[in-house]
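New to this. Please check both lines:
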Amino acid sequence: MEINAWIDGYKVRAFPWIDGAQIYFNVQYFSPGSSLERPPAWNKTVYIKDNAEGRNLVHNFTSSLVSYVARMKIPKGAEVTLSLCELL
């Protein structure tokens, strides 16, 4: 499962992380009219536990996840990991 697409106005990349236990999920925002050759206005990365629930979130709820990550306040240098549990 890999994503490299524009979703809701954000450049989104997602792929299994090298440790095999997480999914790398990156959201970038480019200011209107700016060149894609320049760095994005902001760049946010989260890791999602690579299990059935995490893969379901990334695959079936991508737009909602992008919106959530875009609104997150992630301190510089912080690593954020999202873990989901199975709903009963």
In short: The longest strand covers residues 22-29. Residues 3-31+40-82 form one domain.
